């Protein structure tokens, strides 16, 4: 018997996810309209290369910070909405107020001239196949 995995989200989490999904759809739709050719990719050309180089150089040190579980090239979000600004997205299990962290444990706002966006994703665990 095949078991179906379903998210264990509260109603509030589900609604927040839907709002985020709708914001990203509006963001990509607007980018597609403003660029010739119709198809839209958020990171292209020199911007993508700059972010990839920053990630390659800084990913290992960033993964050494408490609660950090991943690093990726991305688009900054503010209040759940994409801003269009490229950044390194640092994924953490949970956010901790800066005042509760030692100075050495605080993620920088930018690294190598590239802004950092911190996104809480919860714990990441390998799943059996």
Write the H/E string, N to C: HHEEEE
The CATH topology of the largest domain is given as: GMP Synthetase, Chain A, domain 3
- Approximately what portion of the residues adopt beta-strand conformation? 15-25%
Number of strands: 4
**Uncertain segments:** 35-40
What separation lies between the terminal Cα atoms? 14 Å
What is the CATH architecture descriptor of the largest domain? 2-Layer Sandwich
The coarse silhouette is globular
> Helix count, per DSSP?
2
* Main beta-sheet annotation: 4 strands, mixed
CATH uppermost class of the largest domain:
Alpha Beta
Classify the secondary structure makeup into a structural class. Answer: alpha+beta
Q: Provide the spatial order of strands within the biggest beta sheet.
A: 1-2-4-3
* Helical content class: 25-40%
Mean pLDDT across every amino acid position: 82
Give the radius of gyration: 17 Å
Counted up, domains total 2
What does this structure look like?
The chain has 129 residues and is an alpha+beta fold. Helix content is 33%, strand content 25%. It contains two helices and four strands, in the order H-H-E-E-E-E. The protein has a four-stranded mixed beta sheet. A hairpin with a 2-residue loop joins strand 3 and strand 4. About 5% of the residues have low confidence.
């Amino acid at each position: 018997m095949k078991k179906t995995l379903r998210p264990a989200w509260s109603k509030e989490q589900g609604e927040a996810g839907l709002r985020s999904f709708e914001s990203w759809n509006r963001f990509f739709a607007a980018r597609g309209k403003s660029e010739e050719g119709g198809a839209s990719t958020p990171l292209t050309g020199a911007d993508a290369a700059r972010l990839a180089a920053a990630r390659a150089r800084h990913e290992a040190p960033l993964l050494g910070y408490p609660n950090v579980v991943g690093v990726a090239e991305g688009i900054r979000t503010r209040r759940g909405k994409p801003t269009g600004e490229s950044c390194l997205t640092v994924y953490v299990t949970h956010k901790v107020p800066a005042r509760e962290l030692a100075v050495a444990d605080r993620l920088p706002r930018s690294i190598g001239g590239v802004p950092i966006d911190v996104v809480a994703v919860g714990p990441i665990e390998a799943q059996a196949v």
